[in-house]
Amino acid sequence: MKPRSADLSPGTAPSPPVGPPADLIVEGGRLVTPDGVRDGTVLVRDGRVAALLAPGEPLPPGPRLDAHGRYVLPGLIDSHVHFRTPGLEYKEDWEHGSRAALVGGVTTVMDMPNTRPPSLDESSMLAKAAVIQGTSWIDYRFHMGADPDHPELLAELDPRIASSAKVFMAGHHTAPVVFRDGEQLRRAFAAAARGGVRLVLHAEDQHVFDLLDASSGAPDTYGGYEPHRPRSGGIVAVAHVVRLVREYGTKTHILHVSSAEEADLLSAAASEGLPLTYEVTGHHLSFTHDDTTRRGPRTRLSPAIRECRDQKRLWQAVLRGEVATLGSDHAPHTVEEKNRPPADAPPGLPGVQELATAVWTGLRTRDIAPDEAASHLARLMGEGPARLFDLVGKGRLEAGADADLTLLNPSDRWQFSAHDVQALCGWSAYEGWTFTGRFTTTVKGGHVVWDIRDGFSGRPEGRWLQGSARPLEVAR
């Protein structure tokens, strides 16, 4: 939807200008702000939100974007994506991944380190940023990979380059390095605490899986995948992490929590005051083990998608405010890779485009009122990740914030198909789903970069977000 000049009825005298012209006026929407949801208008100047106006307040001159009947949310943040660059661009790349993000209302992502080569130090992340520059439609930041052979690097990590590091406690097809030794993990927690680095963890215990593999081997059906990688791996790992956080005080965020027991443990640890938070994915909220049994590799994920009771507990955690972030774990593979025999098919599925819409649909299906549902999205994909990962100017619709916005039609019912998929892999586990709610326009830096009617506008101008005011050029 292209911004338009204000329409005047014949013979109507224009109102006198109010203040300097705006670069964009997002008029008449339902604004989802940190202080609540209300009707109003957003003024944008110089790439930032200049003001939020109440209905009826006089407007300055400037191009207008009609937001009536839409929620206006801050540009959403997906703090868990795998855009596969460098080395795995045949599965996904930043051009396609960032387009998928925009269509799903996401304007900022945080990319994971398990690429080829993996991002295990500052120099590899600088090289990765150089490859991505000029190809992303959205802003981005990186999680560095924690190296079990060099955990001391976490104590010296330059926050301009990264302020968080991914720890794999269990392996799978694309995990570059795994913390198999307890002393290595302990050293990583100690070093991260000294460096003020937030650890983000794939928290499943590899020793539990090795023990089970020795007795039962790999599954020969997709229905056997979840029992092959059971909840016990996550429960053991989370209990271990809680002990380490209590000992070192390390800021820690558990990714893609899959079971009721893990949610119980983590919520209890947070209530004790430990600096321990957790993420839930849209996939674990949308699917159950029965879907994997029926549909095979399309919903094969790591950690595995579990039972109805687990899904129910994760939704409860979302609604109670126990969950800190929603992530897509956007991890595309080719159709050929996913159709390999059960023992060889890699876990992972695309999701950055589908995440917010799937969660909105789930919220509305559970009779959550629209304003409350919008507030949940803004908290879990806005304020929450922005706060945890120091994304200055992101995730809040307020004066002074970056003018990243997305407009949501809350009641549109539509069926998602392969034709809608923007990810390079060309498929989605949500094909055939009837969604409630649809993003219609995304604004990045004060400019409309995607609209449902007009498509994409401009060119990729996403920025690598710095962790401090100092320029990246002087980073090591």
Automatic annotation (TrEMBL):
Residues 1-21, 326-350 are annotated as: Disordered. One of its GO terms (molecular function) is metal ion binding. Residues 330-341 have a biased composition (Basic and acidic residues). It holds the Pfam family Amidohydro_1. Residues 71-449 form the Amidohydrolase-related domain. Its cofactor is Zn(2+). Keywords: Hydrolase, Metal-binding. GO terms for biological process: purine nucleobase catabolic process. One of its GO terms (cellular component) is cytoplasm. Coiled coil: none annotated. InterPro entries: Amidohydro-rel, DHOase/Allantoinase_Hydrolase, Dihydroorotase_CS, Metal-dep_hydrolase_composite, Metal_Hydrolase. Belongs to the metallo-dependent hydrolases superfamily. DHOase family. Class I DHOase subfamily. Catalyzes the reversible cyclization of carbamoyl aspartate to dihydroorotate. This is Dihydroorotase family protein. It comes from Streptomyces liliiviolaceus.
